[in-house]
Specification:
globular; eight-stranded mixed β-sheet; 20 strands; 4 helices; single chain; about 290 residues; disordered N terminus; 2,3-Dihydroxybiphenyl 1,2-Dioxygenase, domain 1; about 45% strand; alpha+beta
């Protein structure tokens, strides 16, 4: 089961409802997949691939992921697991559909209805939901510039669950105006009322911090009409690795490509990569 929606910027977005059940806790042989919802911050990412097995064969050895089967009511789906914690989901889109392979970032909330109302009030678009699932209530949305994101209301957990190699380091928004975007997301997710979150301006970007670490970064310079998809409004995912250079080299041997060579940045050494099916993502060694 899939949902296709047109954002306020006129961009068609693709999301897979299978991800909405990924946080259902189950005791499995040899491991426990733990659910955690970090209120106000990115806390889950999901990849829509054309072939789940191809994606597993790439990301598994690259990021040290193990895999456990997820709900298969609508097709192949699996969870990526690090140290017993589910850190990402991988679903399979119909191969005949002409949509790019892409990662989607999900923000935690304690009230999906309120977040949805705020999205509409501030010029964003609600594409689907909120709807109730075993893991809580979820919705899919797009900000005023057309960048897609998800909303998850579930059992809260600490941001420290993300602090492990191979897990989400943070999500980074490329948008036309970082300050306008910060006003939108800050109002939608109540950043200024959250005692455990802090918003700061640093190195020409807006940073969301919590639990002593960066959780999200909002950067300007994006353009909806740009021929390069890397600079169109979208959320990019960053995964923690021990060595960005070695990970980039390993990605190539696994059939991926390097979109931006490893280089030093204010947040550490980073590299932008594409998986075997073209999905964009970043790795960072801090």
């Amino acid at each position: 089961m899939h949902a296709v929606g047109r954002t306020s910027a006129g961009v068609v977005g693709l999301w897979d409802v299978r991800v909405w059940t990924v946080w259902e806790e189950r005791l499995m042989v040899g491991s426990v997949v733990q659910a955690r919802c970090v209120v106000g911050a990115p806390c889950w990412v999901s990849l829509m691939a054309r072939d789940v097995d191809v994606a597993k064969g790439f990301y598994g050895p690259l990021l040290g992921w193990g895999f456990e089967a997820g709900p298969d009511r609508w097709g192949a789906y699996c969870r990526a697991v690090v140290d017993g914690v589910a850190v990402a989901g991988i679903g399979e889109v119909a191969r005949t559909w002409e949509f790019p392979v892409a990662w989607t970032t999900y923000f935690g909330t304690d009230d999906a209805d309120q977040v949805s109302a705020r999205v509409r009030e501030r010029g964003g678009t609600m594409v689907m939901g909120p709807l109730a699932f075993d893991a809580g209530r979820l919705a899919l949305a797009a900000d005023p510039d057309g960048a897609a994101f998800g909303v998850w209301q579930g059992r809260p957990g600490p941001a420290s669950d993300l602090e492990r190699p191979g897990a989400l380091a943070w999500s980074e928004l490329r948008t036309a105006d970082a300050f306008a975007a910060a006003l939108f997301y800050g109002a939608v997710f109540g950043w200024d009322q959250a005692s455990d979150l802090d918003v700061a301006f640093e190195h020409e970007r807006v940073l969301l911090r919590g639990a002593g670490r960066t959780l999200a970064s909002l950067n300007g310079g994006g353009s909806q009409g740009a021929p390069d998809p890397r600079v169109r409004p979208r959320w990019h995912v960053f995964f923690t690795v021990a060595d960005a250079d070695a990970t980039a080299a390993r990605a190539v041997t696994l059939g991926g490509t390097v979109a931006a060579a490893a280089h030093d940045s204010p947040v550490g050494r980073v590299a932008q990569l594409r998986d075997r099916e073209g999905g964009l993502f970043w790795v960072v060694a801090t």
